[in-house]
Amino acid sequence: MSPIRLIARLDIKGPNLIKGVHLEGLRVVGDPREFARRYYEAGVDELIYMDVVASLYGRNSLHEIVRRTAHDVFVPLTVGGGLRSVDDVKEILRAGADKVAINTAAVARPELITDVSHRFGSQAMVLSIEAKQVAVSKWEAYTDNGRERTGLDVLEWVRRGVELGAGEVLVTSVDREGTRRGFDLDLIRRVSQAVSVPVIASGGMGSIEDLVAAVHEGCADAVAMADVLHYQRMSLGEIRQAALAAGLPVRKIEP
Amino acid sequence: MSSKVTLMDYGMCNLLSVARAFEHCGADVEMTEDPGVAVRAEKLVVPGVGAFRDSIDEVEKRGFGDAIRRFVDAGRPLLGICVGMQMLFETSEEFGDHPGLGVFAGRVAAIPRVNTDGVLQRVPHIGWNHLMAPETGRSWRGSILDGFEGTHPAFYFVHSYSAVPADPAVRLADVFYGGHRICAAVQRENVMATQFHPERSGELGLSLVRQFISL
């Protein structure tokens, strides 16, 4: 097994790092670049920047923040929110992003997934899915931060998205997001089983036990964390050490 | 010794992150779309990301193929990164057999879809992985990994294909993925290449960048 990636997810609104519950009730946390820099220094494996109001306005406004982050942060950066075309993707990659996470525009025009993966490689095309549970072991995909229904079954959509060329999947449980009640393990496991590309679990991380469960029971390849890091409930160093102690394969910073 | 480093620009999108890492490490970075400039460089970096075929097509179309071969013959330091490493080999099986630059003998093959226990595994290989010495036991002393001997430094990988050198002696480092040994770095004299991304591998990656600048 390859080391499990510990990813810091930064939801951004305007110039601010924000945090909500169920992707709503957003509160300002601070300056995203400062937090990104701090996480980089603490040994984060990757960063995700999500422009949470971009889809509402139809554009991603993170270029400047991405450009400034890329100046002194040397780990992979995924950027999502409001990216609608190959040109949008090109612009944000040129600003310093390594990958893009696409949800709304991919639902509206699934061939965008193929266009992006052909142009920039499937490794740059992360399919972002916001999942809300609708029945036992059944989830519906949402867009616009869990506001808009799509009518798409998450498991069918994720299979299709990977067939179309997505090289990675970011699955966010809207039900668990911001609650620190643990990941939706059934969701993560079924998505992981549905596809052969790496899956990033997002939404609900509150403890080391949640992280271990996401990997052992959810079969996640990477875990995105927000609340626990932003509010300094745990440090990345503590999380990495505890994960190693629990037998989880994470990168050892001291080789 | 000069800190001047030339980055080959053949239309790839991660050029800026590579440039930024080299600048951060004190290099005087020059980006060029001109094969004539590349062939005269003091040190040349061939970055890469994405698909082999699209990359090699762009490289050949822009006249960089000959420039790289002539640069290598001149014996000055060259660093290939990811697809920039893969292109240095003779052929790639990505999208059918496709010829590469032939600087190293060998081919580029798909990462096995199943692990050594026969279980389906994730491809692409995305994430940090710990390097180890190749089966030849070759030392890292005096190589681009100088200073890491006796350790297993982790670097960031993202790839679905990997190089299989015909000559085991050029293998510098391997990683295990799903129990399979995968070539992570090669070096033959002043020609070196990494499957991983030093520009995206935090402080350890930057130390490798500094090592190249100081050659």
CATH superfamily membership of chain A, which one?
A: Aldolase class I
Give the terminus-to-terminus CA distance of chain A: 17 Å
For the biggest β-sheet of chain B, the strand order reads 2-1-3-4-13-12-11
The percent range for strand residues of chain B is 25-35%
What does this structure look like?
Chain A is an alpha/beta fold and 255 residues long. Chain A has one domain (5-245): Alpha-Beta Barrel (TIM Barrel), CATH 3.20.20.70. Chain A is built from eleven helices and twelve strands. Chain A has helices spanning 32-41, 54-57, 63-72, 86-94, 104-108, 111-120, 154-164, 185-194, 208-216, 227-230, 236-245, and strands at residues 5-13, 16-21, 24-30, 46-51, 77-80, 99-102, 125-135, 138-143, 148-153, 168-173, 199-202, 222-225. Chain A has an eight-stranded parallel β-barrel with strand order 1-4-5-6-7-10-11-12, surrounded by six helices. In chain A, strand 1 and strand 2 form a beta hairpin. The longest helix of chain A has 11 residues, at 154-164. Chain B has six helices and 13 strands. Chain B is an alpha/beta fold. In chain B, a hairpin with a 2-residue loop joins strand 12 and strand 13 (191-194). The model of chain B has no long low-confidence stretch (mean pLDDT 95). Helices cover 24% and strands 29% of the residues of chain B. Classes of the chains: A alpha/beta (255), B alpha/beta (215). The interface between A and B is large, with 35 and 42 residues.
Looking at this protein, list some descriptive labels.
heterodimer, A: 255 residues, alpha/beta, TIM Barrel, 8-stranded parallel barrel, 11 helices, 12 strands, globular, B: 215 residues, Rossmann fold, 7-stranded mixed beta sheet
